[in-house]
Amino acid sequence: MRATLLPIMRLTARTVLFGLAAILGVRLLAMAVIPFADTSEPRYAEIARVMAASGDWITPWFAPGEPFWGKPPLAFWAQAVSGAWLGMGELSLRLPSWLAMLGVLAILHELGRRLYTVQAARWAVLVFSTMLLPLVAAGAVLTDPFLALGVTLGMASFILAPAARSWFWRYGLFIGLAIGFLSKGPLAAVLMAGAIVPWLLWHGNAARHLRALPWVGGTALLSGLTLPWYLLAEWKTPGFLQYFVVGEHVLRFIDPGWTGDRYGSAHSRPYGAIWLDWAMAALPWSPVGLWLLLRQGRGGALAARMRAFGRSVPSTYLFAWAVATPAFFTLSGNILWTYVLPALPPVALGIGAGLSRLDGIAPRRVALACLMLVPAVAIVLGILSFAQPDRFKTEKQLIARADAEIRAGEKLYFVDSMPFSARFYSRGSAVAVSRGDLADVLPSQGGRVLLAVEKRDLADIRARISGTVTPLYTSRRYVLLDVLAPEKH
Predict the structure, then answer these.
(1) How far apart are CA 91 and CA 99, in angstroms?
(2) In this structure, are 218 and 266 located in the same domain?
(3) What pLDDT does residue 36 have?
(4) Same domain as 427, residue 356
(5) What is the SS3 assignment for 264?
(6) Are residue 192 and residue 314 in the same domain, yes or no?
């Protein structure tokens, strides 16, 4: 019976290609139709748009006159180039993240093939591509996909380098570090070292792996790819290194309520919450991974199986890689769930290796259900973006309505607050005005102005306006008002 059912869990190359094409195709479609929703996506999209429009490829700009020191520019470079070539739209600015995650899948497949089997590699790419956070990140204007690409390349290269014939895997650690340094900063080195060092100490095999790396050439390559930008960034906007290295990498980590954040607010979370994020980010596969792990304790002494796991070079390497990131952030309360993305490729490979050894109808049905769940959610969100756009926290439709109404010489003003989606979709033409300065922009006789007002402030703002006020459009948060000056009698 076992021999009969074994092929059920086997995947052909054609099945994997068709499956990935469907999954990634659904993500591309969702990328094209779902608008940028505040806050992170339109903020980064606007930074990329300004970079392309200004031609300043050294300093990302948060607002006119305010440099964005929170992240290095690799993601913004890719997004700005894509937007300049394909137009500043949702699909073009999300495409670099999609390509970065495609790179992660390619590396993951090669790593799985070399460490385990082709079947394990095929399952791993399907598992990773249908995890919640990877699928979300693959179609989002974020920097995290580039960090995940750098860490995945570096970690895969380190373990493959001793047996590698190609220069690529021997230099891959340094290329991966460069990608990480230019997308998130020194955090990339911390996450890699947090997995590699304990693993080397556990197995006592440091000499073999360290000798396989071209340290002189690799360090020169890493320095050549990263140092010029860091030096130019500090020269162009002094203070960058102090804020980025000390503030973003030390104070943000140790202080949940860090008040030095120039670009938003600190994210205060309970210590250890990153482990819940880790489990949630891997849905729907995290319960499957737990079941596979518990299953290893059946059919023999648990202690013997644990000893076998401890002696397994691939298994312990994947384990160290998977837990290093959440372990690092355990004592930090200033976290986001996207931080666990670099830790998910080894989880996917571990699950893929387990699935490749299973047989039976029930595991097949569970696996198929998991493969379909998250892409189905992406389809639903895409449909909702057409049917009920006001469900999304975005001002895309409000800006479109204002553009249809606005006349030459007129402007759209956001009273008291202007979200990043308004900045991006208006291409920087919308203007923020405080409530106290509202009288300065209200029209004189015969004039007209468009105001965007938060719903909660609508009654107060209307009480301050004389003349004719006509609501034109209502989004989830704002009301677009057409204000005509009162006529003189």
Answers:
(1) 12
(2) yes
(3) 92
(4) no
(5) coil
(6) yes
Cβ 359 vs Cβ 155: under 8 Å: no
> Are 271 and 299 within one domain?
yes
Is pLDDT at 453 greater than 70 in this prediction? yes
Q: How far apart are CA 292 and CA 309, in angstroms?
A: 13
Residue 210 has pLDDT above 70, yes or no: yes
Alpha carbon dihedral 188, 347, 149, 94, in 10-degree steps, equals -120
Domain end, chosen from 386, 406, 428, is at 386
* 282 φ/ψ angles, rounded to the nearest 5 degrees: -90, 0
Distances (CA, A) of 172 to 99, 151, 179, 194, 217: 18, 10, 10, 18, 12
- Count the neighbouring beta carbons within 10 Å of the beta carbon of residue 446: 9
In a domain, 489, yes or no: no
Query: Residue 409: pLDDT band by 50, 70, 90 thresholds?
Result: confident
Cis peptide before 284 (omega within 30 of 0): yes
Q: Give the separation between CA 27 and CA 338, rounded to whole angstroms.
A: 18
- Taking 70 as the threshold, does the pLDDT of residue 280 lie above it? yes
Quick check: is 185 in a domain?
A: yes
Q: Who wins on pLDDT, 258 or 464?
A: 464
Q: Of the candidates 323, 326, 202, 218, which has an alpha carbon nearest to the alpha carbon of residue 276? A: 326
Question: Number of helices and strands (H, E) in the chain?
Answer: 24, 7
Cβ 436 vs Cβ 473: under 8 Å: no
Cα torsion angle, 149, 262, 51, 85, sign:
positive
The CA distances from residue 132 to 138, 211, 245, 375, 442, in Å, are: 10, 38, 30, 9, 47
- Residue 460 sits in which domain range? 396-484
User: Is there a single domain that holds both residue 360 and residue 412?
Assistant: no
How many residues can be counted in the chain? 489
Phi then psi for residue 66, to 5 deg, are: -125, 105
Q: Which of 358, 386, 414 is the last residue of a domain?
A: 386
Number of domains in the chain: 2
Residues 160 and 96 in one domain: yes
Same-domain status, 407 and 357: no
What b/e readout covers 167-185, taking b as 16+ CB neighbours within 10 angstroms?
Answer: eebbbbbbbbbbbbbbbbb
Give residue 259's pLDDT: 55
Q: Are 392 and 433 in contact (CB under 8 A)?
A: no
Confidence class for position 2, pLDDT limits 50, 70, 90: very low
* DSSP character at residue 180: H
Q: Are residues 406 and 368 in the same domain?
A: no
Rounded to whole angstroms, the Cα distance separating 247 from 204 reads 36
Burial of 210 (C-beta count, 10 Å sphere; 0-12/13-18/19+): middle
